[in-house]
Amino acid sequence: PVFAALTLDGCFVGGVLLVALALAGSMAFTIRMRRKLFENGLFAGHLDDSSVEHYTISIARRPWVIFLVSGFLPLLILVGYIALSFMASESEAAFIVAQAVSFLCESVLGSVVLIWHISHVLSKVTREISDGLQHLAAGDFSRPVPVLMDGDLGELARGLNTAMSGLQERDSLKHSLAIAAEIQTGLLPERAPEVHGYELFGFQQTCYAVGGDYYDYITLEDGRVWLVVADVSGKGYAAALTMANLQAMIKGLAKVNWPIEQAVQYLNEALCDSLTAGRFVTLFMAKLQPESHQLIWISAGHVPQLLRSGETIRSLAASGPPLGLVRDAVYQCESVTLQPDDLLFAFTDGVTESSSHAGVERFGEARLRTWLAAHGDMPLQQLPHALIEALNDFGRDTHDDDLTLLCVRRQCVESQGGDDEI
Predict the structure, then answer these.
(1) Could you tell me the pTM of the whole model?
(2) Residue 357 and residue 395: Cα distance in Å, rounded?
């Protein structure tokens, strides 16, 4: 019985308690090493799932390991001591009882040390994850969390790092979008040119950081002005790149002062070569001749533009297909003589295709005509804001589509003799 009692104590101490303490110590050592390697950028925290830590400190297994070492096995061995004491002589029983008391002290002390080790290790790991969550909440995505252990908490740390990386990329993308939006804004005219007897004003509101709408007024050397409103199919980066390409081509054509029908023909052929299948550009281009007050215009698949003359509102309908769809398409010019107070109201389909609150009805050309008849006498600078207010009342969502306006009004300037001078 004495030998059996000593064997029980030795097996528990050498085969269970010391092994558990060694594992706990190795966990603490591993975490310290990983922390140092992480600080030096040498360890990303990815180990094989077969590692010892995975089986000893898994959230699912950890309570059972602690219970086995500090509860079940000591209780089982204590029962063995009691059974041996009944089998032994009086002197042997006294030794076995003393051995049992010594065993209980060893077990309690070892369990305390084991639980302290594991708690200390876990507190370090959870503190790092907590710090990472605080940085995440504060919007600081540049400080990854060190993966100090494998298992469930390691996966949590890796997931947190993945989230931080994604959010950091999103911030970088937002910065890139802001730069792209600034570049695109720089492609639009800073101010309207001063044309004797005329007032011009342009406005644009994109549904995303960048868009595919474009407007411009380009003054030629002879005083005539090209007026351009275009809408690239789609939204976002692809539409913005196409818009920038279109703007560059139009600027170049204006420099050589081509007739606008030849310019539109050239644009169509160039876009047929460069645009991918299914993409296209609608374009309204006009040439304003201030001396004769003629407006020569072409519409390539664009929504009908509106010309307000007195009480009459005329639609300037498309004379050909959108650019980039049909090679060798023919575009016919039309012209109109502008009278005093006539207003050219050019826009993109972001106006007429704005949805109602229920999303089942479009603003449409009829409502736009009614609105223009009531508000066409307003100063040009106030027209966009008044129109946006009407669209918002109708139920427009700012993410529906880009919105672009270009307004041209022929003014009446009173001469010194009292007659109207155009």
Answers:
(1) 0.62
(2) 4
